[in-house]
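WARN no homologs supplied; continuing
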Amino acid sequence: MRVISVIMGATTPKTRNSQTTSLLDYAFNHYDIQPLYDKDHVIDRAAVEKGDASHVTGVLGSRISLLIQKGMKLEDISEKVEMNKNLKAPIKKGETIGKFVVEKDGEVLAETDIVAREDVKEATWWGLFKRTLAKMSGIDAGSNEKESE
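OK structure emitted
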C-alpha cells in the first residue's frame, strides 16, 4: 500500500512533519489492501467466429486489489464478467475481449479489461468446412483445438 501525504500552509517544518506523521499513521492503521486476483488470472472463454479455434481464453489484464477499511468483510462484493459478443478472428494475444468489474452495493470498487491469452488466427476455408461438416454430423466440434490444414 502506498500513501501520499500533502500538507499545505504549515507554518514550520516541524508542524508539517507532525501532520504528515498523523495522516500516514491514520491511513496505515485504518486501511488495508486486499488482493483478489493476479494479472493473467483465467476468467472465462469466449466464442470466436471464423477462427482457427472456436474459443479464446480470457484473462485479467491487470491485478485486482481492493483498498478496504480494516475489519470490513468482503462478503457483500459481487463480480461481473462482461465478455464482448460476436468476436471475430483474427484476435491477437492481449487484445481486449471483455471487462471484469467488482462492485459493492452497486458501486464499482475495481475494474479491469479481460484480454485474450492467446492468438486466434482466421480459419482456412478447409477448417471452416470441416467444422461445419462435424456440426452437421453431430460430432463435438466445440473444442479449442486448432484444425490442421
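DSSP finds two helices and eight strands in the chain.
OK
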